[in-house]
Amino acid sequence: MNLDVWTAVDRYVNDRVVFEDDALRAATDAASRAGLPAISVTPAQGKFLYLLARASGARLILELGTLAGYSTIWLARAAAGGRVITLEADAKHAAVARENLARARLDRMVDVRVGPALETLPSLTDAAPFDLVFIDADKPNVPEYFDWAIKLSRPGTLIVVDNVVREGALVDDANTDPSVLGVRRLHERLSRDERVAATTLQTVGAKGYDGITLAIVNDR
Q1: From 124's CA, which of 84, 89, 135, 192 has a CA 20 to 30 Å away?
Q2: What is the mean pLDDT of the chain?
Q3: Sheet architecture: strand order including 132-135
Q4: In the chain, how many domains are there?
Q5: Residue 188 domain boundaries
Q6: What CATH number has the domain bearing residue 34?
Q7: CA 132 to CA 111: how far, in whole Å?
C-alpha cells in the first residue's frame, strides 16, 4: 500500500459517498489561489466531522484552526440552526475563510475570531459549554488546547484532535520536532486524565499517514 492507492481510494469514496459540493470545492480553490498551505482535512474527513457533529447532536461547536474554513463549512452544516465559533491565528487565513463561509451562506452562524488561540480561548467562557470541539491548530500547544476544550465543555462533549500520529513519529522517542512532542505530551496526559474517555485512530488517505484522537468528557 502507498500514497497513490490511498489517494485513489479517497477519490472513489468522495465520488460515491461524500458528495463534495460547489461551495466546498470553491473553498479549496480560494485557499489555493490565496497561497494558503494545503493542510485542510480531506473531503472524506470533512464529512466524518459532519457525521460526528450530527450523531452527537452538536449545536454549539468550537473549532481551533480555521485556515480557509473548509472544515468549518462541514461543521456548520451539521449544526444547522446552531452556532460555530472558530479561532484562527492568521488574519489572512481568516479573511479567506470569511469569504468562503459567506459563499456557502453560513457566515451568519459562524463567528471567526482572529488571534493566537491561547489568548482568545479565555474569552469563550461565557459562550460555553460547547457540544463539540475540533482541534486542528499548531501541534506544540495541543495539550493546552485540549485542557481548554475540557474547561469549555460539559459531560458528553466530544473533542476531536487532528494530525496526532505524524506519520508514526508519535512513537519515536528520539524525535524532537515540536509538533511531535506536542502530540506525545497530549497522549501522556490522556494516559492519566480521568476527565475524559479517549482513543486514537490511525488514518491514511490523500494527505498521507496520520491519525485523530477522539475523547468524550466524563461526568464530573
Answers
A1: 192
A2: 96
A3: 110-114, 83-88, 60-64, 132-135, 158-162, 208-217, 196-205
A4: 1
A5: 3-217
A6: 3.40.50.150
A7: 15
